[in-house]
Request: fold
Amino acid sequence: MARVAFIGLGNMGGGMAANLAKAGHDVRAFDLSADALAKAKQAGCLPVASAAEAVEGAEAIVTMLPAGAHVESVYADAVFGHAPPAAILIDCSTIDVATARRVATAAGAKGLAAVDAPVSGGIAAAQAGTLTFMVGGPQDAFDRAQPFLAQMGKAVIHAGTSGAGQAAKMANNMLLGATMIATCEAFRLAERLGLDLQTFYDISSVSSGQSWSMTSYCPVPGVGPETPADRDYQGGFAAALMLKDLRLAMQAAQEAGATTPLGTHATELYEAFVAQGHGTTDFSGIIRTL
Ligand code: NAD
Reply:
């Protein structure tokens, strides 16, 4: 078993660090929040006083932070200069592709191996150890990160070179945002046309309009499997996080010269939804505004 540094013990990182401790690793955990540190201690991690202290002597350094600026500053202030040369750096945060590539290049310049490894799956999957990891980086770095990621997830997929994990995450979540809105619109149209919503679900879920947003995350209460719609759109994937990912996707599209009219419109609709005070509402709750 290895010594692992885990920085960022929030909603996602808390469960992920707990699973590494459960697997028998010596997890040195750091977060700015005392509450998060106390929970990590209960979960079998060793709370430490700084990110630099967590990183000292670590074989793997996992970060799960809010955004690119946090990752860049933790790497500059605590990881570079403290990480042993043989450490593998694994950033699981969802951040912009450009920052992910910049961080990997900076790590490489210091002789450190690094991967971007954002996740699909929410807080429940983080706790259950059933996340999907999409990983960007050289093959040897992927091979070294893989055993640690496998202890926190059900699928670990090598997406390509540095930044490719974030690119896959952006494209996937842009698709998710657009299909959720399209699914909500289809239910509203069916309703206006006088269809019973359960009947429409029964037809569409086995027809060409089927998608994950329809059959795994149905935005209509009482229809399909149990989803946040059945809990008044609480819990699940917050609209503010969907908006964050859509904005990152739009930024990446602009940098890459990709045309994404539906992604652009989905971003505008989630911007309006969040501006109306629904940032913490599950993203499927957008059906109420359509
Ligand atoms: P969170 O806000 O609950 O956790 C982030 C943690 O980072 C907080 O505890 C905060 O105190 C800590 N932090 C911030 N700056 C720090 C620093 N300099 N040093 C140490 N700790 C610091 O967020 P989360 O929901 O756990 O999400 C983390 C990442 O995972 C985000 O990039 C998010 O987009 C992504 N993500 C979230 C979900 C989800 O459902 N919540 C799903 C997939 C991906």
